[in-house]
Amino acid sequence: KKSDFGLIGLAVMGQNLVLNVESRGFQVSVYNRTPSVTDEFVAKHPGKKLVGCDTLESFVQSLAKPRKIQIMVKAGAAVDQVIEQLIPLLEKDDIVIDGGNSLYTDTERRDAYLTTKGLRFIGAGVSGGEEGARKGPAIMPGGPASTWEVMKPIFESISAHVDGQPCVIHIGPGGAGHYVKMIHNGIEYGDMQLICEAYSLFKAAGFTSAEMAAIFNEWNEGELQSYLIQITGKALEQKDPETGKPLVELILDKAGQKGTGQWTQLNAAENAVVISTINAAVEARVLSSQKKQRVTASTQLQGPTPALDKVKAELVAKVHDALYASKVISYTQGFDLIKTMGEKKNWGLDFGGIASIWRGGCIIRARFLNRITEAYRSEPQLANLMLAPFFKDLLNRTQQNWREVVALAVTNGIPVPAFSASLGYYDSYRSARLSANLLQAQRDFFGAHTYERTDKPEGQWFHTDWPEVIG
Ligand code: 2AM
Predict the structure, then answer these.
(1) What is the mean pLDDT of residues 277-305?
(2) Quick check: is 181 catalytic?
(3) What percent of the chain has pLDDT over 90?
């Protein structure tokens, strides 16, 4: 019997996806560049419907037509190399799926290229890490709708499910799937940083690790319920086996990144979309990585002595609101970017559907995503998520505490770049009049850029002969 599905690249994600697909009743052929990895993997799983192949030729021959081949190799050149090796072996209408973290522009290029070869291509973002791959990830496939229809039964059966709904929808053509996965990762950066800022305030106020764990555990029972809040509570409970101390306090405060956050930043800059919360999160990682410089600066640049212990009692409820409101801003900005690109590319994106598939499998899974789905379902053309009834009420209810938290952080010298960037966006967006009138005066002053007036119809442009400045 020929296999229903083939997978190339047996690193952990690939292996777990294979086991997931197999567990749903499909026979899976597997291939890895280093054959010993294939042999060991198959030997480790006796009795499963797995076909190990040591050559790409035998792998391709073992698959039922149209062939469905998922590539799970390192993003970048390796994907192109595998595709090049596959092309001469494949036949018209065979389907190649790239399930790695590819840059969406690479996906667009590969989609166009494989189409010229008579082959079908899907660029699918797969989120959820190793565990998600094994038990059910969120999947964001991009490519032609007709190809999605062929892949749908397999993707829907292997994805996570929430309320009986699979956490996979056809995102759109071409690079849409990998694009949405990229924004998912940007949002993930934001969520993580916001939680870390909450932690830093609690820490400065003198909460113990056990007390902080209890706060996050409790938050996970309420509106903030999410995977990242949940693992934060668990992480804070963890003791170092050697010293018995809270493990988190022993971990070096130097964060890495793999680049999807920066891709999101670049894309936002190209499209002139404000994603200040995500930017703050990416930049916070950059500053964290400059540990040596920070240690030097800490003895040279002055700040206030934190005195948050006095407000300890009221801090929990306030930080809760600051975190929740900032999170709403982060998603507002992320969806603004998705909407902007979706329209530019004509992808026909379903924003509510995107939020709903993020409810399961992936790192940002959270209860509150339902609210985003509801907002877009009731108003598909919603310009800004903050103006949906639920989020408007939420922000109006939390904004006072949010401000007080940012103010406390500022007066106590505790960095909260993502909380404050979010608040800056909120206060700017809700300002009927900003200070850009002065900006326009400056531009007209030095560059004769002209300006419009509040007392004249829009579209009429004025220039002033400003006084000459000497020196
Ligand atoms: P390997 O076991 O032969 O190294 C993650 O690195 C996965 O991608 C591994 O399964 C690895 O195979 C595979 N991989 C990396 N570069 C590759 C390439 N150029 N061609 C094929 N597979 C590759």
Answers:
(1) 97
(2) yes
(3) 97
